[in-house]
Amino acid sequence: MIWNLPNILTALRLLAAPMVAVMFLFFPRFYADWFALVLFVSAAVTDWFDGYLARAWKQQTKLGAMLDPIADKAMVVIALMVIIGFSSWKASLVLPATMILFREVFVSGLREYLGDVAGTLAVTKLAKWKTTLQMIAIAVLFSQGVFEHYSVTAGGLGWKLLLAEWSGRVGLWLLWIAAGLTLMTGWDYFRKALPHLKETV
């Protein structure tokens, strides 16, 4: 059956990706920050569950294999777009986000070009760690918006202000580390694809 539970979870994660941005169109900033954070974290958790259940229940399908990386990329790209938009285009955020987006587009293009031999670019363990770190960084950055609201309503004093400040710093550090891993995996995929890109005489 194509629409088994793992595939349904993957499809829901894919649908959740644009909803993260939609939250900021229909709700005040405070509620949008909360909804986006909860939605993103919930979707990120399903990224582990759908793969685990598919393997445990032997329900791996071609549909799931196709949708899973698309859902991951959609979540990361849309969430980064939202975060950058509300950061007033800070260079410290724009640069790692650009590195991540460039790699995702580049590798997707490689896979599309390679076609039948795209299996050469199978997902590696480092790439899985990269995706996990990206999602953690984005979740922490979303939490900054929540903590900032509380620090303002509390007069900007105490632990709430510290949480707002440190969630931004930690999220940014994690995003830079994720960007570094992203470029490393991108180079690894390009190196593996090189033999298939050589001109035949």
Automatic annotation (TrEMBL):
<comment type="pathway">
    <text>Phospholipid metabolism; phosphatidylglycerol biosynthesis; phosphatidylglycerol from CDP-diacylglycerol: step 1/2.</text>
</comment>
<feature type="transmembrane region" description="Helical">
    <location>
        <begin position="170"/>
        <end position="190"/>
    </location>
</feature>
<keyword id="KW-0444">Lipid biosynthesis</keyword>
<keyword id="KW-0594">Phospholipid biosynthesis</keyword>
<dbReference type="InterPro" id="IPR043130">
    <property type="entry name" value="CDP-OH_PTrfase_TM_dom"/>
</dbReference>
<dbReference type="InterPro" id="IPR050324">
    <property type="entry name" value="CDP-alcohol_PTase-I"/>
</dbReference>
<comment type="similarity">
    <text>Belongs to the CDP-alcohol phosphatidyltransferase class-I family.</text>
</comment>
<comment type="pathway">
    <text>Lipid metabolism.</text>
</comment>
<dbReference type="InterPro" id="IPR004570">
    <property type="entry name" value="Phosphatidylglycerol_P_synth"/>
</dbReference>
<feature type="transmembrane region" description="Helical">
    <location>
        <begin position="74"/>
        <end position="102"/>
    </location>
</feature>
<feature type="transmembrane region" description="Helical">
    <location>
        <begin position="132"/>
        <end position="150"/>
    </location>
</feature>
<keyword id="KW-0443">Lipid metabolism</keyword>
<protein>
    <recommendedName>
        <fullName>CDP-diacylglycerol--glycerol-3-phosphate 3-phosphatidyltransferase</fullName>
        <ecNumber>2.7.8.5</ecNumber>
    </recommendedName>
</protein>
<keyword id="KW-1208">Phospholipid metabolism</keyword>
<dbReference type="GO" id="GO:0016020">
    <property type="term" value="C:membrane"/>
</dbReference>
<keyword id="KW-0808">Transferase</keyword>
<feature type="transmembrane region" description="Helical">
    <location>
        <begin position="34"/>
        <end position="54"/>
    </location>
</feature>
<dbReference type="GO" id="GO:0008444">
    <property type="term" value="F:CDP-diacylglycerol-glycerol-3-phosphate 3-phosphatidyltransferase activity"/>
</dbReference>
<feature type="transmembrane region" description="Helical">
    <location>
        <begin position="6"/>
        <end position="27"/>
    </location>
</feature>
<dbReference type="InterPro" id="IPR000462">
    <property type="entry name" value="CDP-OH_P_trans"/>
</dbReference>
<dbReference type="Pfam" id="PF01066">
    <property type="entry name" value="CDP-OH_P_transf"/>
</dbReference>
<keyword id="KW-0812">Transmembrane</keyword>
<keyword id="KW-1133">Transmembrane helix</keyword>
<dbReference type="GO" id="GO:0046474">
    <property type="term" value="P:glycerophospholipid biosynthetic process"/>
</dbReference>
<dbReference type="InterPro" id="IPR048254">
    <property type="entry name" value="CDP_ALCOHOL_P_TRANSF_CS"/>
</dbReference>
<keyword id="KW-0472">Membrane</keyword>
